[in-house]
Description:
The protein is of the alpha+beta class. It has three domains: 39-92 and 124-428, 3-Layer(aba) Sandwich (Alkaline Phosphatase, subunit A), CATH 3.40.720.10; 488-565, 2-Layer Sandwich (Arylsulfatase, C-terminal domain), CATH 3.30.1120.10; 574-753, Jelly Rolls (Sandwich). It has 19 helices and 28 strands. Strands 1, 2, 3, 4, 5, 6, 7, 8, 9, 10 and 11 form an eleven-stranded mixed sheet that branches.
Amino acid sequence: MTESAPPAYEGFQGRVGRTVAGSEPWWPARPEPPADAPNVLVILIDDLGYSDLGCYGSEIRTPNVDALAARGIRYTDFHVTPMCSPTRSALLTGLNSHRAGVGHVAHSDPGFPGYAMELTEHAATAAEIYRDAGWATFMAGKWHLAKDSDTNAAGSQHSWPCQRGFDRFYGILDGFTNLHHPHRLMSDNQVVEVDQYPEGYYLTDDLTDRCLSWWKELRASHPRKPWFTYLAHPACHAPLHAKPLDIERYRGRYEAGWDALRAERFARQQELGIVAEDTEVAPRNTEEGDDVRPWDELADHEKTLFARHMEVYAGMVDGLDQSIGRLLDGLAEMGELDNTIVVFTSDNGASREGEEAGTSGYFVHLLGQPDVEADLPRMDLLGGPQTMPHYPRGWAMASNTPFRLYKINTHAGGHSVPFVVSWPDHLEARGELRRQYAHVVDLLPTLLDLTGVEAPSERHGKSLIPMAGTSFAATLGDADHPSTRTEQVYEMVGHRGYYRDGWEVVTRHPPLTPIDDSEWELYDLTTDPTELHDLAAEHPEKVAELAAAWEAAAQAEQIYPLDEGSNLKFVQRPERSAAYREPITIFSGTPTLERWRSLELINMRAFTVTASVDLAEGDRGWLVAHGDQGGGYGLFVDAGELWWLHNDGKGVVRRLSGGRVEPGAHELAAVVITPGGFLWDVTLTVDGDERATDTGYRMLFPMSPFEGIDVGIDRRSPVSWEIYAADGPFPFTGTLHRVRYDPGEDAPDSAWRWIDMLRDMGAKFE
Length: 766
């Protein structure tokens, strides 16, 4: 039943006469924070390992974060989820990630509550709570809490930052981007229209500038209003990009390799007290598929290439620290540093996505094999805009010192992260360590506790799920206070874990294998924090106890269904998604089509792209460009000749000429078929007449092309660096009426053809 509108003046607590002079005004109260209410700055770094900061044992220059730690507190036993989107959901809601609706990264939509890939409406975000309490709310950086199919112009915006409580947002909705040429920046709910970034542009610096600008604008507008800022840097996620001077600072530093670096960092951690003197560092990872070769067994050319990867990563971390220094200096200049709660942490452990040998082409590498020979000639380009690199997993192992395994795993290397907090006006501790166990679900309750803001039980008529987190504010002032969190559940892609009072059961679950209790390992973390001595055989009763606790938590936190490894969850989509695979027409002047929406037109399928043009003599430029330096293709005209160009994302660029096109009106097309073997064959046509055919182009999928479709121009990161260097975005000088995409048949090796087989294969492990 629809509630009727209130009568006129209902609820007005003044008096209304016939005139203003004869009436008594009344203004409804607004939330008003205390006069001394602090600002709150939460800095979340992507894929930063436990040992990557100087104050946690690193050789990388991080003087600003180290100074933050020196005037604050470091936690040595702080944990997150083993993946980025889930950690972000827990941080912002105080809920376990599956209960918040984000049990995995937001690049799928399998159709289950724990994997909705967007924040539940029955949770209030930190931004919503603080805005309702009278704080200004800002977010810069990586969101990654809206399902990929909702990040285009036709998608729902209900799980975007400004719809979840942020007054201002500047950054990316996606999970990662090119830091030199971001593929798609958003300002609030609007795409930032950029054809070409200025020389020397770097996203980390841009995000820093935006935060400083917001703070200054607010303070010029109001002398006391506090703010909550969530700065979620896309660095240090792949592609690993850094500024040249920052990379140069680390030239030659990593020639000794990851084994030596790990030993060096562990020794420093012992000196700093980050780990106890009797702690054993985990041995080199040897698990199949996660293993790391001894550095001394590598070939010389591998050592040279791999060391360069780590130089880039170190430069990236160094650049982050510089940006944080600028933020802290800005707060000091404004006189607000001491009354700002600053939190610094990472979203998971260091990433092994570069696999055994790293890559110069991250987007195409996700489903490919390492190719050292292809990467060697590109070594000097690593870290710059022409490559999309990720380091070999041996460096991730070193980043996670002293722990085992990596991001994704529920072992400590996947979820143990640095955590620094500072609030000089109210926290007396300076440079102290805290060894209490804490989890990212505890951060929001702690911040609310420190700022005196009450967590709501309902909002806008919706009941809210009670937060799973518990404030650890008491431990900030008392190093001996017991841990306020005694239990925690973990799950990621079938890997499972459960912590209770210093004991932990954990699995490393191989895909397409039975999910049962025989997998559980058991560790006493009070004596074995690096998980080296499996006690499962000695204490079966403890295994049974914690396995049962995991099962109960899995039901309560909507962790089921588990990922059996069939990849069905990536293929299974709602019927409405099929609309994105229908033919479309893109008219001249259309902004860049969003990444996921663009990919649906070509992903694992044949397609035809046709440009309707009027050509005059001398006209040139891109007709259509899809992708970037991480992989892409396009059609362009130059010197009266039609060209197809394909960039495989690993440095190989191929061209196919369609011959001369006479001035006049024409339909210029590329007909792409999929013979199998993850390849494309391409035929160029002019007004339906075949002009040229070539075969064996590397099919681009699943995230390459990463930048969306441009018509009449190639914006931002170019498909062809050669063309970009000569002509920039290379806009078409003729008349481009429209570009039409006609998606065709699924490729023979497309998962869409085998969805029933995938379901049957996965059902064996029910």
